[in-house]
Amino acid sequence: MLLAAVLPLLILSLISSSSATPDHHPLRGRWRELRKPSLVDQPAKRVSPPEEQRYRLPTYIVPTHYNLYIESQVHTGNRSFSGQVDINIDIRQPTRTIYVHNRGLTITWNELVKTIDGDSYNETLLYTVDTEREFIIFATRDTLLPGNEHVLRIAFQGELRTDADGFYLSSYLNTTTGTRKYLAATQFQAISARSAFPCFDEPAMKASFSVVIKHHPSYKATSNMPSYVSAGDEDGYVVDYFETTPRMSVYLLAFMVSDFPYIEEGQQRVYARPTSINQTQYALEAGLRILAALDEYTGIPYSDYMPKIDQVALPDFDAGAMENWGLCNYREEYLLYQPGVSTYLTETFITTIIAHEYAHQWFGNVVTNEWWSYLWLNEGFATLYEYMAADLAYPERRYRDLFNVDIVQPVLRSDSSENTRPMTFSRGATFDAIISIFDNVAYSKAGSVLRMFRQVIGIDTWRQIVREHIERSEFGSVNPAALITAMETVTGNASFLPDGIDMEAFVSSWADQAGYPVLEVRRTYAGELILSQDRFYNNKIVNDDTSVWMIPYTLLEQNAPWSVDSLADWQWLTVRAVRIPSAIPDDHWLLANVNQTGYYRVNYDARNWQMLIGALLDDHTTIPMASRSQLVDDAFQLARANRLDMEVALELLSYVRDEREYPPWESVNTALSYLAQRLRGTPDYGLYQLWVDTLIGDVFVGLDVTGVPPSGDASLLDKFLQQLISSWACRMEIESCLADTREALERELTGVEPVHPDVSSVVYCYGLRSAPGSDAFQYLYGKLQASANRAERSLLIDALGCANDPDELDALLLTAIGGELQVNYTPEERYYVLTSVLVSRDGVDALVRFLTDNHPYVETNLGPGILYSLVQSIATRTNTPDEEQMLNELLERLEPALPATVAANVRTTVSRNLAWSSSREGVLVSYFLQRYRPIPV
């Protein structure tokens, strides 16, 4: 699964991260967070094993096969469904009780069919319902014994859920006929299969499934496997029979009843609502290329396991995307691509998300984590290969070069908290406890650590490990020991490791410990290096954490030849600190963790930092591109944690005047965005603008803000760089940028020339800000109303949020409520409208006004968690006493609705913001800007 299926938690994540998201393109930041969910301040609190076991199934009964029958009338919008499930169970020790999961279903009858010595016996079982633990506990008259055949038959009734979880109701508006059409789809990960039918709802309880679905003839049923027959029933309905699945976890079962058409090629289909089927061609093409790449890479063709794979674009799918074996589900905007409307960002996201879900077909479906505490074995592999497989399918796009800035660096920032958790971890076996670990640790950290393993072991050897792991554990459920065994088997019992360290110690040091280390590299300039490690925290230097990681590292010396493939001379730090000899000349710089391959930060002594800065300023190409990005990110975050002088970090950032690669600029972008938020409203903000103007000046001069080179003349990373630099130029109010975007928007508004999708985010946002009158705002609002493309709608909402006219902002926010101004928003879009205005102080003020009058609507219709998050978002953007007074007045109005802890956290945030200018960090930044006094180029 791409992300946790709990929207309120995701929204909290988005709000918390928004302060680090540049206002020039909030959509990309939003997508990135949705791809890799990050829960806010979730303490790393474990439950005791007995507490968890209360909710776990006994292991002495396991399912082997399910025959599942479902009957639905969803074509009318009727939420009622009924069915029967026959579960073949294997009794492994004598028992008189059978535990089966159930959530909200009504049991209409049951029987147990026992076959003993060829004779069958039927027994209706008494049962009790444990609602808290979501069990049906069946009791038998006689003791059930191993060796006999047992089939548990249960008939049930239920209602389709309305929260996009389990077996749920969805709908869309047919824009041609004006009628609403309904469909039923599933989302079972992590433990929601039990809301569709009684089952053994744990990932290790693998079984095969035979599915039969009855539905109206105007609709079609789709499931994991192909349908082998479709028969009419006496009542005029149709019954579809599907082939039996391989042995798999129940959360991977999927089915859909809808009127969706599809396109197909080979063994792949893409389904979408009728009015969007013309937007599915790219998903089909990408699916074919990515599956072929993964087939070749693993050496284990997908067709060895499954005969087909479908992709479905769903109108409502809070999970984002889900890897159901043979039937991958996606939120519409994550799969549909409309030429002439969709952007390169949409194309990038669709490609990598398909790669993520297709990677799961091996990592998660063939081989599955045996319990959710090992979720990283599923999601880490999928995160790693979402970029690798996309790169194999489209090597010219260089998706591989996005991994550090999209995955590694963001999770290094979030994983530096005291509240973070280890990769292997459990909070319990309840729905909320399990969903809470679908976080950045399970996805991004695990993907980063696995990439480190791959590089250290060697990419060819790693490929053999992947195949060994899949083949050794196929159709099984695993814990980290299985991966360790595969690694030992292929590498010859871990011969690459240092003496005294085995593979288990190496893997466990990264999987079983929270956080990550900082590698301190101190040169004596007398023939030695002093290397040390301790846990990196974002808010303290000295700590009592005794964790020790098995750190692999590479060293690159000034003037040494290098290439991406040649940097494989790994050394090890396996203790807290060590002194080692060094022959590096004193006047040569030294670079560690080359290309940010290892999952840790690196700090140097002051002299080496200055030599690295000198190298970047003299000829930045002497340092590998990925390492330049790493140096920017490490330096700035080390400075924020008081491990490095902030002036050193800011001097290093200044080299980017000559940088022409996107990844280092994206690392700079994060730093500049943080400083912009801290400095806005202070006397030094003008100096900050001049500094940024200087940094972007040389790059900006060569850019056409509103133009797009002919197809093939600009690489994907060039497009990313163009948007980033253009956005900063407009944000810093460079007149040529504002004039160009204003004119481009005017040309589209008057019908002269449409804005190209790839520059529309910048043009719409800043063209709107600088356009006179309200015509541009009305035009973009009308375009939003007319659009049925979810990705375009999100972009337009973000653009409208860029307005700086108070009346326009007030009107936009009121559309989130509805009434006469109502747009056909989804619930998420209503939330997006409210957060879209946070890109400017004008928008923040408008949100304060809106919440003052309309907070009951937000609390009732979007939920109290949304209200709390919006207030916290306002607090993070409150920098002056006048702004603090506005927020305090809002808090007084909200007092009955806000818990005391939320209000206290808001006030603490504001106090910290107002005190920043006089903090050590604030004073150092001010000193740098005043001393630097840049002159724009």
TrEMBL record:
Zn(2+) binds at residues 356, 360, 379. This is Aminopeptidase. GO terms for molecular function: metalloaminopeptidase activity; peptide binding; zinc ion binding. Belongs to the peptidase M1 family. The record marks 443 as: Transition state stabilizer. Its main location: membrane. It comes from the Eukaryota. The active site is at 357 (proton acceptor). It is a lipid-anchor; GPI-anchor; Single-pass type II membrane protein. The keyword Metal-binding applies. Residues 62-252 form the Aminopeptidase N-like N-terminal domain. Residues 589-903 form the ERAP1-like C-terminal domain. It is found in: Cell membrane; Membrane. Keywords: Aminopeptidase, Cell membrane, Disulfide bond, Glycoprotein, GPI-anchor, Hydrolase, Lipoprotein, Membrane, Metal-binding, Metalloprotease, Protease, Signal, Signal-anchor, Transmembrane, Transmembrane helix, Zinc. Residues 1-20 form the signal peptide. One of its GO terms (biological process) is peptide catabolic process. Its cofactor is Zn(2+). Residues 282-510 form the Peptidase M1 membrane alanine aminopeptidase domain. Its EC number is 3.4.11.-. It is an enzyme of class 3 (hydrolase).
